[in-house]
Design goal:
Strand content: 5-15%
Distance between the termini: 80 Å
Number of domains: 3
Oligomer: single chain
Shape: elongated
Order of helices and strands: EEHEEHEEEHHHHHHHH
Radius of gyration: 32 Å
Number of helices: 10
Length: about 300
């Protein structure tokens, strides 16, 4: 479990209020990081020796090091953390023995949350969450064994809210996924309308220039020349629209940044991929008008006038 806590770092002046250093305080067992596949990038993980009789220790995340230590060596540095108890205990100075890979706690984090882990044997809480990883097979198949194991320890202890990590992730991202589906649906509709619009405009422009195309063909222009003329007109319209759209998108990124997860507002892949999709769309939209223009019969064109 995690609880937001103010922390004091050895050698730094204590701070209060908005300037106070805060971290998510998590009480974990020694096998926590291995179970959830969170690597320890510096130092060590907790061991069974990190118990109530051992020296107070903690592990911090990458965001904690980057935000609060200002380039100092984290290993061996001590951090003052209030003990989780009722009533709240006095701060305990804990030595940093490891740095864990940063974990995203919420889908819409504006910035990574500083995380601090302590051994649950040194600061127990009145309830806990149990994480179990199967060596093989599905996670759902472990449920009877987990319930039986808990019952062997305490038959009166209820086991509630049993969920797989996939279900937890799906619940945590349900709102962003709904917004993404909604935005994607409207984007697809907008793309469809754009295709219809490009097709309609070009079809109309071709119809208006039937006599011109008839004259060009009568004067010896090949069908490929007429098709190239139509495609060139479509390319100019498409490129002008793309330029306006990309400039507007770049200008609006400051407002869109809060709606994006793991994607930078000026994501190069997005800014290159979207124009490619729109160009391909425009090519398909103008294919029929260009084909019609290339097959104009000069006699029919003059008679139509």
């Amino acid at each position: 479990m995690w609880i937001g806590q103010g922390v004091d770092i050895e050698g730094d002046a204590p701070r209060q209020g908005p300037s106070q250093k805060n971290a998510s305080y998590q009480m974990i067992s020694p096998s926590y990081f291995e179970t959830l596949d969170i690597p320890i990038i510096r130092g060590r993980a907790f061991t069974d020796a990190d118990n109530r009789g051992g020296a107070p220790v903690c592990i911090v995340s990458e965001a904690f090091v980057q935000r609060y230590l200002n380039g100092r060596e984290p290993l061996g540095l001590r951090v003052g953390v209030p003990a989780m108890s009722f009533p709240a205990g006095a701060p305990v100075m804990r030595e940093i023995v490891g740095v864990a890979r940063q974990v995203t706690m919420f889908p819409n984090e504006p910035q990574p949350i500083a995380q601090l882990y302590v051994p649950i044997a040194q600061n127990a809480w009145f309830f806990a969450s149990l994480s179990v990883k199967p060596q093989s097979g599905s996670a759902e198949a472990l449920l009877p064994a987990v319930r039986a194991a808990v019952a062997r320890v305490d038959k009166e202890r209820p086991v509630t809210r049993v969920r797989t990590i996939d279900v937890v992730a799906a619940e945590a991202t349900s709102r962003p996924r709904f917004r993404a589906v909604l935005v994607g649906t409207f984007a697809a509709l907008a793309l469809g309308l754009a295709m219809v619009g490009v097709f309609g405009v070009l079809a109309y422009s071709v119809q208006q220039r039937v006599r011109e195309f008839g004259v060009r063909i009568a004067m010896g222009a090949a069908a490929s020349d007429v098709m190239r003329l139509v495609l060139g007109s479509a390319a100019r319209l498409t490129l002008i629209g793309l330029a306006i759209g990309l400039i507007a998108a770049a200008a609006l990124t400051r407002y869109l940044g809060t709606l994006l997860y793991n994607v930078t507002p000026l994501d190069p892949l997005t800014f290159m991929g979207v124009p490619v999709v729109l160009i391909v769309t425009a090519v398909f939209a103008v294919a029929a008008p260009a084909w019609r223009a290339a097959r104009v019969d000069p006699v029919v064109a003059f008679r139509a006038e």
